[in-house]
């Protein structure tokens, strides 16, 4: 069954999503949005829309390993995940609502989100604090009669432009003894008075006005006296950090498999260009040792990352997220670094063409550099792994807190 799904997804991507790649790269998301809706309808007809969701919600209830393989196929083109409604941040918000949403929240938000009728965003990172340590956070949620009032400024709230609601992390219990028990998650409809998108952030030369970028955007958002009811609290009060961590586990596997797909496409493009580009009579780019070195190294690094991601997805299926914690950090670190190198080599092999948006390499080069930053920067994952191994070897915690 899994092979059938993956074969169907591959054919669907080739027939329906690949043709949208060039107009998207040249004219942006809005230019292809209407056509994407038609393509999503085709996916629904084929029974492959949102295949990660439980069958009761219109999906296929695929296990994480198969979802990973689907993600790999979709990663081959920038709109692949969107076409199947497996795009960030909706996929992770869906998981949040499935796991922690109340019945009313599921009905109001999860049902339309699962169908792809609305979009959502996730608002945690703040411009004035280190996102890699969100224990320090200024956004406040103050308890009032019958609800909460939120105040704060967030940024890199991806896909906020056009989203129906935001999942917002805010400090609800500043007096809690444990720093990790001070924040909670809230569902904030984006039409609530006081919610405003200040701007879509300019990212590596791209930055469209609010309303013009749609899903492919990262917003700066202000919450000013945003009043929501008690029913807006998602999960337990004070459980924000624990939920953010839970959200990240499968999310890192989704991202990593998407990166494998991107790297595979970059490698294919690199090989095709090296095999065909003539440096002179009888001499192709691919005849050069350096280029052969890049191709060989890229292939080996890609295969290693792919197998590591797969093995970690299996471990998560069998041992749960906690059991696979070290491997999840390892996968995030290894796959993001691999992607960075493969994209760079692919761009280099294409010379000036690589810098253009006539191919997807430059698009990924701009957007996926962030792979080494979001969901925990490289250095944090290195430390997670190292501390665990050093702890196992008996090294005590440092005497000075925060060292
Ligand atoms: C494309 C993109 C999309 C994003 N989408 C979202 C979103 O939808 N919602 C959301 O809330 N946030 C989002 N983010 C924000 C993301 O979560 C943060 O960028 C990330 O957590 C890092 O935080 P920061 O940018 O504040 O960097 P900082 O925390 O300031 O860190 C800066 C650098 O310091 C280094 N560093 C950090 N910690 C350590 C350490 N312990 N030891 C050594 N070095 C360290 C790393 O090199 C790191 O890159 C997105 C970011 C990007 C780039």
Write up what this structure looks like.
It is a single chain. By secondary structure, the chain is of the alpha+beta class. The chain has 3 domains: 2-87, Butyryl-Coa Dehydrogenase, subunit A, domain 1 (Orthogonal Bundle), CATH 1.10.540; 120-234, Butyryl-CoA Dehydrogenase, subunit A, domain 2 (Beta Barrel), CATH 2.40.110; 242-392, Up-down Bundle (Butyryl-CoA Dehydrogenase, subunit A, domain 3), CATH 1.20.140. It has 12 helices and 10 strands. The protein has helices at residues 2-27, 29-46, 64-74, 80-83, 90-100, 103-115, 240-276, 289-323, 325-349, 352-355, 361-367, 378-392, and strands at 120-123, 140-144, 147-158, 165-171, 183-189, 195-200, 218-229, 233-234, 278-280, 283-284. The radius of gyration is 22 Å and the shape is globular. The model has no long low-confidence stretch (mean pLDDT 95).
Could you list some keywords that capture this structure?
single chain; 403 residues; alpha+beta; Butyryl-Coa Dehydrogenase, subunit A, domain 1; Butyryl-CoA Dehydrogenase, subunit A, domain 2; Butyryl-CoA Dehydrogenase, subunit A, domain 3; 3 domains; 4-stranded mixed β-sheet; 4-stranded antiparallel β-sheet; 51% helix; binds flavin-adenine dinucleotide
């Amino acid at each position: 069954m899994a092979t059938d799904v993956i074969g169907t997804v591959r054919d669907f991507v080739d027939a329906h999503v690949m043709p949208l790649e060039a107009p998207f790269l040249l004219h942006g998301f809005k230019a292809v949005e209407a056509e994407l809706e038609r393509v999503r309808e085709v996916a629904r007809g084929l029974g492959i829309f949102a295949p990660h969701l439980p069958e009761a919600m219109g999906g296929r209830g695929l296990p994480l390993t198969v979802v990973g393989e689907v993600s790999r196929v979709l990663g081959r083109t920038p709109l692949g995940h969107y076409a199947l409604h497996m795009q960030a941040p909706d996929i992770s918000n869906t998981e949040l609502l499935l796991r922690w949403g109340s019945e009313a929240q599921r009905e109001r938000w999860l049902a339309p989100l699962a169908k792809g009728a609305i979009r959502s965003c996730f608002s945690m990172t703040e411009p004035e604090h280190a996102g890699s340590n969100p224990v320090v956070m200024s956004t406040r949620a103050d308890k009032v009669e019958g609800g909460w009032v939120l105040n704060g400024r967030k940024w890199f709230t991806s896909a906020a432009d056009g989203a129906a609601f935001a999942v917002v992390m805010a400090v609800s219990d500043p007096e809690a003894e444990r720093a990790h028990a001070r924040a909670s998650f809230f569902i904030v409809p984006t039409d609530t008075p006081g919610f405003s998108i200040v701007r879509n952030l300019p990212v590596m030369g791209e930055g469209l006005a609010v309303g013009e970028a749609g899903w492919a955007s990262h917003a700066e958002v202000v919450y000013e006296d945003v009043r929501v009811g008690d029913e807006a609290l998602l999960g337990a009060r004070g459980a924000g950090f624990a939920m953010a961590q839970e959200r990240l586990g499968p999310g890192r596997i989704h991202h990593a498999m998407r990166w494998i797909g991107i790297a595979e496409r970059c490698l294919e493009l690199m090989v095709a260009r090296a095999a065909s580009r003539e440096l002179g009579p009888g001499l192709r780019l691919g005849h050069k040792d350096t280029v052969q070195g890049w191709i060989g190294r890229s292939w080996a690094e890609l295969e290693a990352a792919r197998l590591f991601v797969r093995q970690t997805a299996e471990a998560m299926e069998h041992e749960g997220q906690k059991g696979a914690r070290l491997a999840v950090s390892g996968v995030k670190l290894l796959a993001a670094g691999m992607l960075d190198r493969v994209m760079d080599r692919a761009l280099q092999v294409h010379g000036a063409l690589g810098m253009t948006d006539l191919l997807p390499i430059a698009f990924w080069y701009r957007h996926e550099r962030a792979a080494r930053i979001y969901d925990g920067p490289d250095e944090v994952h290195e430390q997670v792994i190292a501390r665990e191994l050093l702890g196992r070897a008996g090294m005590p915690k440092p005497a000075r807190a925060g060292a």
